[in-house]
Design brief:
about 210 residues, Arc Repressor Mutant, subunit A
């Protein structure tokens, strides 16, 4: 379950409804490296050279995929700067790197697996860094782990609960953005936070299902 929405740009952005991405955008964002670029550009403005250093990829490869995202309308050029006889281009995201279910299912299975693998690696790394650096010391930090045995209807109902939770989290972020704009540079600033939502079939369940079908 993944959702897509416009990047928050101000107090009124949470009220704006955006149409679902077209086939060109879905295809563009479906590539793992292009999605990684989109994720990074949701967090900050950056150039292909900076992104290449971040991903440890060749600059020309990152520039190529950045160009595809720009043509699809998923990112936009915000400024240029001269650099040693050339021009460096800086981009920002115009959409979040998520899909609604109907768009997500249009991606090939291999692509969906690659995207999930990328996200799981990032979540795992961020959790490890937070644990080592006191990121769970906040009194309202939350960690939970719940195992359930669900039928298809129950799985769908659980997915819908998570979809609504994600929507509410994005609304909270929009309200925070509005308050930060009103406050300007006044302290305190926002608390850098991260929420990971994961729902999946446990391996033991999948194994039992395969045995039952054999």
């Amino acid at each position: 379950m993944l959702t897509v929405s416009a990047t928050s740009k101000g107090p009124k952005s949470k009220r704006r409804r955006t149409p679902p991405p077209n086939e060109r955008v879905i295809k563009a964002v479906g590539h793992p490296l292009r999605r990684a670029i989109l994720v990074a550009l949701n967090e900050r403005q950056a150039s292909p050279t900076q992104l290449a250093r971040c991903f440890d990829e060749p600059v020309n490869l990152v520039a190529y995929h950045t160009g595809i995202l720009a043509k699809a309308g998923a990112i936009e050029l915000v400024r240029t700067e001269p650099r040693r006889g050339s021009t460096e281009h800086y981009y920002r995201a115009t959409m979040r790197p998520f899909f609604e279910d109907r768009e997500w299912l249009k991606l090939p299975l291999a692509t969906r697996r690659a995207v999930f693998d990328q996200d799981i690696k990032r979540i795992t790394a961020d959790i490890r860094q937070a644990g080592e650096g006191g990121g769970f010391d906040h009194p309202r930090a939350h960690v939970s782990w719940t195992t359930m045995d669900l039928d298809e209807q129950g799985f769908e109902e659980a997915a819908e609960v998570l979809r609504r939770a994600l929507g509410e989290l994005l609304e909270i972020q929009a309200r925070v953005t509005s308050r930060q704009i009103e406050k300007g540079a006044k302290k305190p600033g926002p608390i850098p936070s991260e929420v990971a939502i994961v729902q999946f079939e446990r391996r033991d369940r999948r194994a039992r299902r395969r045995r039952g079908q054999s």
